[in-house]
Amino acid sequence: MKMIGKRSIASAVRLVLGFANVFVMIGAIAVGVALVVSLIFPSFGAGLMDGLKGVDVDPHTSFEMTGRLTLLGAFLACGFTWWIINRLRRILLSVNQGDAFEFANVKRLQAVGFGLIGIQLTALLLVFVAPQSIGQSPSDYDFDLGSWLGILVVFILAEVFRQGSAMRDEQMTTV
C-alpha cells in the first residue's frame, strides 16, 4: 500500500479521523447543550451531577460552580479535539494532493499546536474541578513533560513547513 495519494495510508487515516470527528462533534454538541440547559435550569445541572456521582437525584441539590466548570471543561476538550482533528484532516488532504508544503499547512500546524495547548490547559482545569463536582477528593495534577514536548515539536514542524513553503514558492518562480 502506498503512503500518499488515492487509496493510500494517508487516505485511510484521513477517513478514520473523519469518522472520529463525527463522534467528537456529537459529544461537543451534547455537552454544549447540557451546559446551556444547566445554566438556564440549574436543577437540570444539579441532577446531571448527581447522576454522574451515582446517587439518587435530589431536587433540592444546588448546582455548584465546580459542576459548571466541569461541563465547560468537557465542552472545551471536545471543541479542541474537533479543532485538531479537522486541521489534521486538511493537512492529509493536501499531502494526498501532492502539495504538502503549501503555506496553509503552516497555519494548520500552528492551529494544531494551539489546540494541543488548549487541551492541556483544559485538562489542568478538569483535574481540579471534575473530582469535586462528582463528590471525589481532588486529584493531583501530573505534569506530563512528553505532552508539552510534543506541542513544541508541532510548532517546530510548522516552522519547517513554513521554510519548505518558502523554498517551494521560490522554486516555482525561478525559471
Note down, in words, how this protein is organized:
- With 175 residues, this protein is mostly helical.
- The protein is 78% helix and 0% strand.
- The protein contains five helices and no strands.
- Helix 4 packs antiparallel against helix 5.
- The longest helix has 32 residues, at 9-40.
Helix content: over 70%
Rg: 21 Å
The general outline is elongated
N-to-C CA distance: 36 Å
**SS-based class:** mainly alpha
Biggest sheet character = none
Estimate the strand proportion: under 5%
Instruction: Figure out the total of helices.
Output: 5
Give the low-pLDDT segments.
Answer: none
Q: What's the average pLDDT?
A: 87
Order of helices and strands: HHHHH
Give a nutshell description of this structure.
This protein has 175 residues and is an all-alpha fold. It has helices at residues 9-40, 42-53, 65-96, 103-133, 145-173.
Fill in the keyword field for this structure:
175 residues, mainly alpha, 5 helices, elongated
Please describe the topology of this protein.
Layout: H1 9-40, H2 42-53, H3 65-96, H4 103-133, H5 145-173
Helix pairs in contact: 1-2, 1-3, 3-4, 4-5
